[in-house]
Amino acid sequence: MTHVRLRPALLTLVLGALALGCAHAPEEARPTGDDDGDGILNADDACPNTRGASATRGCPPKDTDGDGVDDSVDKCVRLAGPASREGCPVRDVDGDGVEDARDTCPRVPGVLERQGCPIEDLDRDGLEGEADKCPEEAGPASRDGCPEKDADSDGVPDADDACPEQEGLPALRGCPERDSDGDSVPDQRDNCPREPGAVDNQGCSPKQKQLVAIRQDKLELRERILFDSNTAKLLPSSLPVLDNVARVLLSHPEHTPVTVEGHTDNRGDAEASRALSLSRAEAVRDYLVQQGLPPERLDARGYGPDRPVASNDTSMGREANRRVELMLPTHAPRVKNPGR
């Protein structure tokens, strides 16, 4: 009976001792190591042997496509792209340097200035699209992008070429040199193109001494045209050279118009000199008309002292400046069958 009573008391003592022992036992220490030295304890480090950031639980950033944008924020983890596009690449299907999002013609290479669309100028003549009537041949805007045709490749466009199928000279309106009378003097320099003559007499018979030579831009006068002092009255000594001029121009109708220019030296009033030079040019023109030249082929102009050919400081220079010249047109109009 006594033993039965002692059992509960003994159990109570044992449990009390156990409780007291547990209260004084120290807690188990948490690990404090940081093997990778990234500032994150091993216990909290998902990658304890590799340095990383706290944002990734101690693991290094992952950048699968190597574009510098972490996979955690990269919208295109397998395609490299800038951070400004969240790691996705710039799409440029036509490879013209203009991204598709801004390319008006995303499948056709173009230029930035045209929002990625091409310049429609295949011949690169400055005209595009419908404005260019000859899109595969370069030509000026004045001809709607079409080139000047030159079938014989002589440098004279067919529209201005009197002989478009024969290579010729620009001075002859695209026609080749001819010698109609066979005297070895080309027609364009022959004072008598229809009669054989001497080479040293401008292609004319020695019986007719030539006082005129045809040059590229003018008639060269071998004798001066003279006037009474301070007047527009021709001196008789000037008539033979003017008669020669008339015969040459009548033999060369392609030279139209011919400009008769009057010039003076610089002495006296300039305006009076211009008026006198014009009167003298008109006197020469009128004389040539009397010899059979159509008036519309001749144009008279007076320049006074404005176009000297020599110094006015000497008497010889002033004499050279007092002159009448007969200038030929730079480009003679087309004539049919020139030289015939």
Automatic annotation (TrEMBL):
Domain OmpA-like: 214-332
Stored Gene3D superfamilies: OmpA-like domain (3.30.1330.60), TSP type-3 repeat (4.10.1080.10)
Region described as Disordered: spans on this chain: 27-207, 293-340
Biased composition (Acidic residues): 153-164
Lineage top rank: taxon: Bacteria
Keyword Signal: yes
InterPro entries noted in UniProt: Bact_OuterMem_StrucFunc, OMP_bac, OmpA-like, OmpA-like_sf, Thrombospondin_3-like_rpt, TSP_type-3_rpt
Residues in the signal sequence: 1-25
Keyword entries, A-Z: Cell outer membrane, Membrane, Signal
Localization (cell): Cell outer membrane
Record carries keyword GTP-binding: no
Ranges annotated as biased composition (Basic and acidic residues): 88-105, 124-136, 175-193
Protein name: OmpA family protein
Taxonomic source organism: Pyxidicoccus parkwayensis
